[in-house]
Amino acid sequence: MTSTPPAILSVGRALPPNFVDQETLIAALSAFWGARHFNIERLADLHRAARVGGRHLALPLTEYPALDSFQKTNDAFIRVGSELGAAAVSEALSRAGVTPREVDHLYFVTVTGVSTPSLDAKLVNRLGISPAVKRTPIFGLGCMAGAAGLARASDALRAFPGEVAVLVSVELCSLTLQREDTSIANVIATGLFGDGAAAVVLQGGERAPAPGHAPRVLATRSVFYPDTEWVMGWDVGDSGFKVVLSAKVPEVIQANVGGDVDRFLAANGLARGDVRHFIAHTGGPKVLEAFRRALDLPEAALARSFRSLQEVGNLSSASVLFVLGDLLDSGEARPGDLGLLAAMGPGFSAELVLLRW
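The structure assignment produced for this chain is given below.
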């Protein structure tokens, strides 16, 4: 007898209140980097090409000049990240009708700050989560960590089908700004990445049916591309996290993702045409276009991801969860619909999650 797959009950999202439109950010960075003889016209072109309308920042824009050390930026990450993570988890639990004491597993993902104990420990104390909770903090998976965390949480619930898991992603990308780095990769990053947090509540298949029609995690797959560490990541130095971002990211995606998805679907007796909803990480216009071309999708298939990119930017691991939350809120998915959630990140790697409503 086949067991009932884990269900996604809800998604909670939280954004810091400091929204700044893209033109204001272009002006602020131009004023700073212009004094260092950087090509300001090039900066503006790269930022506008990101197709981001504006972003929410961890701090008011006026407070960033004072962040002149890794310790100061990381302290801000811990303080603001704890607040946003708590807000996202609280919203997700409320939507799911689950109390903090019912949470059996807590997965925490980030790539924009570090602490020991990790932020999930602070959330246990802050929200009154059960002291028996099994905590799994994950650092280093970058933009794909939202999808990977969802997969790992669902894996745990297959082993413990009567339990509840919460995944929380906190990414404060603006705090990783390297002000002395005028490389093209860093300039692109300053025009693309935003700040935010997302949380997902899942339950095992043996628990009472979820209210409404919750999507279930049918299957997951991880794909690692050997010898591609150079494609994306951080160089960690005295000033913190310096972005590594190859221009070949879209090329790697377009060359590989189509076959990876086809093999994943075929292993589950499916083909691309069976999937109605594509929930893609908002890596940037070129990344989304490469994903779309790799799967030969119509432009409308990724409209939700492009809209999220325009509204809040790339939130690293939280992005794909924001897109998932938007789909759940829309009510567009119908019973029996299939969805594919996908994200790519450092390794270089891909994470695929197959959903059925």
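Interim note for the steering committee: The first strand starts at residue 7 and ends at 14. The CA atoms of residues 93 and 291 lie 32 Å apart.
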